[in-house]
Amino acid sequence: MRREYLYALVAGGLVLAAALAISQDAPTGRNASPAQRAQNTRTFLGLGPEPDKEAAQRGAPVFQQSCSFCHGPQARGAEGPSLITSDAVLEDTHGDTLIAFLKKGRPEKGMPAFASLTDDQLKDVTEFIHLQVEDVANRGTYQLKNIVVGDAAEGKVYVASHCVSCHKAESFDHFASKFKSADQLQREWVWPNRPNDNSLAITADVKVADGTEISGRVTQISDFKITLVDKSGQSHTVERTPGTAVDLRDPLEPHQTMIMTLKNRDLHNVTAFLETLK
Question: Model-level pTM?
Fold first, then answer.
């Protein structure tokens, strides 16, 4: 599933990252730190360990000199394919398989071997590539600018036409007073945090090829497995082998739909309106 998410992220940007951005057993809340949000996202999407940013910085000029002409400056594709959704990249951890792969290359497909680079240089390149995957997939650290520049009156109209069908009018009372800053408010109304009471938890029905059915709250999902907690509190990890069907349900799906059509001016206008609700 991780690869499918990344394909969608490349096409749809923020939307799917927001939709599946939290490992639901991890600490959450409006005041969660950027580092915690990033780790929650990384765990839930099965992105693997955090890239080594210092190594990625060292690897950047090596990648630019040796790889960018084919794969683009941010590894998102040029004459050659994007590396963001590459199986070879997604299956690698800190260069454990990519280093050998890069040394050998794929001459039959036009990819040269990089045998002249040292193992340390190649590891730095792999960290740079993993950081590009992180930048595309992990919006746990996404920070919206603290700039209230919209038209509050127009924002009120947008809320009336797009939000009150799901949210009661009283839910907007003193809305702005719940947040420390405008950027925090904006993050919350665009994509609310999932509270620790699991009221907004993603749930799923899983049917295994042998007919076994399991339902519960999703705590982790990846290409290869899904972990659920059932009503009794028991955790189940199911390998996503052929024939396994997964039906996900997300209470925040209306927000995902909204984001698909949300324009910049609506974003700013609604934030300006909600900022008036002290």
Answer: 0.49
